[in-house]
Amino acid sequence: MKVPVNPIEDPELNVAPLIDMVFLLLVYFMATASLVRSEADLGIRLPGAVAQAEEVEMPDEQVIEINHQNRVFLNSREFDSAESQELPDLRSMLMRYKAACENNRTEAMITIAAEDEARHQRVIDVMNACAAAGIKNVTFTTD
To answer: DSSP assignment of 12-38, as one string?
Structure first.
């Protein structure tokens, strides 16, 4: 008895569902994508330069000296009395220095130069004045 053998057909790849899926994905990504504006379209106004009457020379750092009599000097100018712990004049000067540094886009730097005989509490008072003015870059020097 002969068994009938069906001829093997070549498998076919049905492309129609693949094309439908690609178009659906394309429509989905086009609908959900956000449009990016180019830089030329952004309405940005750049700050202009302001002419200054005279040039202000700002030193890179200010030096606060504390002598053996507990007197405080900022760039050779005496501030407050030796008994004052709050140092209001020094604090206000340091606040103005900090504001000037921010306007010039530089970092406010303070160097504390205390003599060996100066009281430690006086150095702490000066550091508190720097902290109250918002100056964080404080260094120490020795003679």
So the answer is: ----HHHHHHHHHHHHHHHHHPPP---
- Spatial distance between the Cα atoms of 16 and 28, rounded to a whole number of angstroms: 19
**Cα distance between residue 48 and residue 135, in whole Å:** 28
- CATH number, residue 133: 3.30.420.270
- Alpha-carbon gap, residue 111 to 103, rounded angstroms: 21
Q: Which two tokens stand for residue 137?
A: 């870059």
Whether 100 is covered by a domain: the verdict is yes
pLDDT by position in tens, the chain (length 143): 678 777 777 778 888 989 999 999 999 998 888 776 665 555 656 565 566 666 655 556 789 999 989 899 998 899 888 788 889 999 999 999 999 889 888 889 999 999 988 888 999 999 999 999 999 999 888 66
Q: Which domain holds residue 129?
A: 62-141
d(CA 89, CA 91): 5
Residue 54's φ and ψ, nearest 5 degrees, are -140, 150
Q: Are 127 and 112 in contact (CB under 8 A)?
A: yes
